[in-house]
Specification:
The complex is a heterodimer of chains A (about 300) and B (about 375). Chain A is mainly α and about 300 residues long. Chain A contains eleven helices and two strands, in the order H-H-H-H-E-E-H-H-H-H-H-H-H. In chain A, strands 1-2 form a two-stranded antiparallel ribbon. In chain A, helix 1 packs antiparallel against helix 10. With about 375 residues, chain B is of the alpha/beta class. Helix content of chain B is about 45%, strand content about 15%. In chain B, the strands form four sheets. Chain B has a five-stranded parallel β-sheet, with helices on both faces. In chain B, a hairpin with a 4-residue loop joins strand 11 and strand 12. The termini of chain B are far apart. The chains are: A mainly alpha (about 300), B alpha/beta (about 375). The interface between A and B is medium-sized, with 34 and 36 residues.
Chain lengths: ~300, ~375
């Protein structure tokens, strides 16, 4: 029993991380039908900039460095949309979705390179927010940092729910995702909506990066794997649905941990990807994706 | 008029002579080229980075002191990112375009093994800085290696366990080449020391949580100690999870892949009590006065710290040993002829490096013995010699 619980905690922790990354993918897909492959880089930036400001350069305490790092990353997200994607889209005829995906890949390589050269190549450690003393729950143990991750994920999900249901901007974003032309015709500023979605996605990614850095250490290239897992979470949940991404992330994390615990630790990644293949095979729209994602 | 012609002829002759002299000087001054494909970035960067820094530092120092055989050294470093395919590409470039005289590099076992066929074919001395015993077993004519092998690490660990009366052991290893090679050695050597492996777990290089594996190890019947095989961030995370799960009553041994300060800082205090076999370099100032490795190790440690203001690791030490072993061979061969240098390396006797005292033979292209390996325990976030 306590073994199962330990696997579950492990799964929930990594699942929550995937979920936070996955939400970013879903937000941007929602607004623009683009899969933003620079999402993992936002995660990396959150952790790396915090570590740099608070520890390497030591110019500010961690509590200040975290919001600053999130703000910096959000600016990078806005910049990506404003200076790389928007110019491509506003050309006569506009760029195709594939072109824009390639732009995001280019941006991710660029960001990774800049960080590698400017902040360093080694692993960096961010201390845990509330110490490393494990908490005992029915014979299984949990680190305080895991609780931080669970808590922040809950807050983010609630805030997103409120954002999409109650705010004009959130509703505008939903409308844009359903029908961009129609949204434009009823007076929604599609450009601003897109810009906001990149900013929010980048900020959420950075938040995930800050939260995970104490657990996983951080390095200029952590974004690759986290981005991939977050993308898998978003796909599993039905891309374009932030809440689906959360469910997808948790499913993925728990599947990995259980596979590692009960089957074989050598195959845990494989098991996770088999689940994704199976879900996509039988339910191509993902666990929570609406029917008919066909676009013309 | 005639006088002017005479002057002109004289000038021309002088110019020609100068040119010829210049050419001769250039020939004598042509650098000895050493190629170094290293994993300066990527997951093995904390091995490759100090290696590159060490090579640069010492090539510079040697050149300031007059070079080797009256010729300056030139080191050509390429960053493989820890990728075996990149290592092959760079090895080819070093051999065919840069025309290097020897190769000191190959940070990881994977990179080294990928380069082996190329250097064997090109017939060029290759001194590897990677750990696994497969590099020199079976012996490959042109390939040598500096660090202790993982088999020696496992033997040292089992030897220490025997003293503590430990027989039931769990193994946890990464999925990389070095990790898996160590895992195989752990299984192969176990019967010789009366050790039984009761659990065998693996994690992927990108894993960030090893609690499932450790939970399984904890519930393995009669487990008395854990042997970790790996390097880099995952090893720090593994000992953190070990502490998180309250398993510190089960002694944790690691192989020499974690012999860098980053392991301790990454573990954030969880590495207390972890034991590992390591080169004497780590505990140089704790060595007894008469130890022959003491002076070499302390000298290197001081020079490195002075130049880079960074803690030393044994990996930089491998590069230090590799470079000097090559130079030593060049001096003895009195030439950079590849075959002559190779033969000279194979005849290395009593060469004192940071890793130990090398006695290379035709049958042993490593040349180290077990006693140059020290058992070290991490206490107060520092290395402590325990024997």
């Amino acid at each position: 029993m306590d073994e199962f619980l330990q696997f579950l905690f492990s799964g929930l922790t990594r699942g929550s991380i995937y979920a936070l990354v996955g939400i970013g993918f879903a937000m941007i897909y929602n607004a623009s039908h683009v899969i933003n492959f620079a999402q993992g880089e936002f995660v990396m930036l959150g952790g790396m900039v915090t570590v740099y400001l608070a520890l390497t350069a030591g110019i500010m305490p961690v509590v200040v460095a975290i919001p600053v790092a999130i703000a910096v990353t959000a600016l990078v997200g806005l910049g990506l949309q404003k200076f790389a994607i928007e110019p491509a889209q506003s050309r006569p005829g506009g760029a195709s979705v594939v072109t824009i995906i390639i732009i995001t890949i280019g941006a991710s390589i660029f960001v990774r390179g800049v960080v590698e050269v400017s902040l360093g190549k080694r692993d960096f450690v961010l201390p845990s927010f509330s110490g490393n003393e494990p908490i005992d729950v029915f014979g299984a143990t949990l680190t305080p940092q895991s609780l931080w991750i669970f808590g922040v994920l809950a807050v983010v999900v609630t805030a997103l729910k409120w954002f999409f249901d109650r705010t004009r901007l959130g509703k505008a974003m939903l409308a844009t995702s359903h029908n961009r032309l129609a949204a434009q015709l009823v007076g929604i500023d599609v450009r601003t909506t897109l810009l906001v979605s990149f900013g929010v996605a980048a900020a959420l990614g950075a938040l995930a990066g800050v939260l995970t850095a104490p657990i996983t250490l951080t390095r200029y290239d952590v974004g690759i794997m986290l981005g991939l897992k977050g993308f898998a979470a978003a796909i599993l949940g039905g891309i374009g649905n932030p809440f689906g991404a959360v469910a997808g992330g948790l499913t993925l994390g728990i599947a990995e941990a259980m596979a590692g615990g009960y089957v074989s630790s050598a195959y845990q990644d494989a098991v996770a990807f088999v689940i994704i293949l199976a879900v996509l095979f039988f339910r191509p729209t993902g666990l929570f994706g609406g029917p008919g994602v066909e676009r013309v | 008029m005639k006088r002017w012609g005479f002057v002109r002829t004289g000038l021309a002759i002088a110019a020609l002579a100068a040119l010829a002299l210049d050419g001769a000087a250039a020939l004598a001054q042509q650098p000895i080229k050493i190629g170094a494909p290293l994993a300066i970035t990527g997951p093995a960067s904390f091995l490759g980075d100090p290696e590159a820094k060490t090579l640069r530092l010492y090539v510079d120092r040697i050149n300031k002191a007059g070079g080797v055989l009256g010729r300056p050294l030139q080191v050509i470093i390429y960053d493989t990112g820890g990728d075996a395919r990149q290592a092959v590409t760079f090895a080819r470039r070093l051999i065919e375009e840069d025309k290097v005289d020897g190769i000191v590099g190959g940070t990881t076992t994977g990179e080294t093994m990928a380069m082996v066929p190329l250097v064997e074919e090109a017939r060029i001395p290759f001194i590897s800085l990677a750990g696994a015993s497969v590099i020199v077993e079976p012996v490959k004519k042109w390939v040598f290696k500096m660090p202790h092998s993982d088999r020696m690490a496992v033997q040292k660990i089992y030897g220490d366990m025997k003293k503590r009366g430990i027989t039931n052991v769990a193994v946890i290893a990464g999925s990389g080449g070095f990790d898996q090679s160590c895992r195989k050695e752990a299984a192969a050597e176990a019967p010789k020391f009366g050790v039984k492996i009761v659990a065998d777990e693996t994690y992927a290089a990108s894993d960030t949580d090893m609690t499932p594996q450790l939970t399984k190890i904890r519930s393995a019947p009669g487990v008395q100690a854990i042997v970790g095989c790996g390097f880099g961030a995952p090893t720090s995370l593994t000992v953190r999870n070990w502490k998180q799960l309250g398993m510190t009553n089960i002694p944790f041994y690691f192989n020499h892949g974690v012999a860098a300060k980053q392991f301790i800082t990454g573990a954030q205090g969880a590495a207390e009590g972890v034991r590992l076999p390591a080169a004497a370099l780590l505990v140089a100032d704790q060595l007894p006065e008469g130890d022959r490795q003491r002076a070499v190790s302390i000298g290197y440690a001081r020079a490195y710290k002075e130049a880079y203001n960074e803690d030393i690791s044994t990996f930089g030490g491998h590069a230090f040993d590799g470079l000097h072993l090559y130079i030593d061979a060049v001096k003895r061969a009195n030439s950079v002829d590849k075959a002559k240098v190779r033969d000279a390396i194979e005849q290395t006797k009593d060469f004192v490096g940071t890793d130990g005292i090398y006695n290379v033979t035709a049958a042993d292209h490593l040349g180290l013995t077990l006693d140059s390996f020290k058992m070290v325990e991490i206490r107060n976030n520092d290395w402590n010699l325990i024997e």
